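Duplicate of #3305? Posting structure anyway:
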């Protein structure tokens, strides 16, 4: 019909409007640097692409880093600050990777637009670009964050842990206005990347009654034990999404369904009915309303990216991301 709007087009329009609404009232907006540093997003994108070509592991690293930043005192780039007793030194952040990408992008931005683009925004943009590089969805990232001045190692204790129950994870996400669907979508970011043996090898032996975690499928257990044997290298990296760790897709959820989740907290998404139903919707299981994982992930990333952002005089623009001005 002339003048009508197709369902995909209508959804896309609603998604853009919804994301804009989420960003408003927080001081961030899409295109914040359009007049002050027009090349800001392209510089970040090209920098991430350059590092990705030589080291694809930076993509999941940057995505995790953005999450860890936002969940500790808001999305203010404080996880980037280096020094004694900073967030970066916390055990929860000890395995984060990709700091060199942010530093590289910041150096190029300072050369092009001195003192304009925040480290917090660079990280948010780099996380989006990382998803795109791994064949995931592209979305518009609201910008305009200022950088925080405080980074304390002890504050990182608020991050969700790899043994956290679903109830605990829900409570931690709810503190930031994120619901259960956001929780499942954002944890779905584990479709790319790896985890060190030390964060899950306790599941393989002596977990309950001297045996392994019963939620691990028996056919998957020997594979994990071979990768992470007793007295082996605890820092060895293992794919979080077996068979598809370099592609942003729904196979991570299929693995959870089949008892092939690597992290205990991930596998619990399937064993808990309240989160399992959302996974089933992402997988398009018969009889349930289908949810598009990529679109829900993008929506949740925008919501997360506006957690306690600092704008105006509440923050600063750090000239070096690893140091306070």
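Output from current build:
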């Amino acid at each position: 019909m002339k003048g009508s709007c197709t369902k995909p087009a209508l959804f896309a329009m609603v998604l853009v409007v919804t994301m804009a609404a989420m960003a408003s009232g927080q001081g961030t907006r899409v295109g914040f640097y359009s007049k002050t540093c027009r090349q800001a997003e392209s510089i970040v994108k090209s920098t991430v692409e350059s590092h990705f070509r030589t080291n694809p592991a930076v993509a999941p690293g940057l995505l995790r880093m953005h999450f860890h930043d936002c969940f500790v005192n808001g999305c203010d780039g404080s996880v980037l600050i280096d020094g004694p007793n900073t967030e970066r030194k916390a055990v929860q952040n000890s395995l984060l990777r990709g700091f060199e990408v942010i530093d590289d992008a910041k150096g190029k931005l300072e050369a092009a637009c001195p003192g304009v683009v925040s480290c917090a925004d660079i990280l948010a943009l780099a996380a989006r670009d990382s998803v795109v590089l791994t064949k995931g969805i592209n979305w518009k990232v609201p910008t305009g964050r200022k950088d925080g001045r405080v980074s304390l190692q002890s504050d990182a204790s608020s991050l969700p842990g790899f043994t956290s129950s679903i109830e605990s994870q829900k409570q931690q996400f709810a503190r930031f206005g994120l619901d259960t669907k956001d929780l499942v979508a954002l944890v779905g970011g584990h479709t790319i990347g790896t985890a060190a043996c030390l964060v899950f090898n306790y599941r393989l032996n002596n977990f309950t009654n001297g045996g392994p975690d019963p939620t691990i499928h028996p056919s998957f257990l020997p594979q994990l034990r071979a990768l992470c044997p007793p007295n082996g290298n605890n820092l060895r990296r293992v794919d979080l999404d077996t068979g598809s760790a370099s592609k942003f897709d729904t196979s991570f959820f299929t693995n959870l369904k089949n008892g092939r989740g690597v992290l205990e907290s991930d596998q619990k998404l399937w064993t808990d009915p309240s989160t399992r139903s959302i996974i089933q919707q992402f997988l398009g299981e018969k009889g349930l309303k289908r949810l598009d994982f990529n679109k829900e992930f993008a929506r949740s990333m925008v919501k997360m990216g506006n957690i306690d952002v600092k704008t105006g005089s509440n923050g600063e623009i750090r000239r070096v991301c690893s140091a306070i001005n």
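Confirmed duplicate; merging threads. The chain is about 40% helix and 0% strand. Strands lie at 194-196, 237-239.
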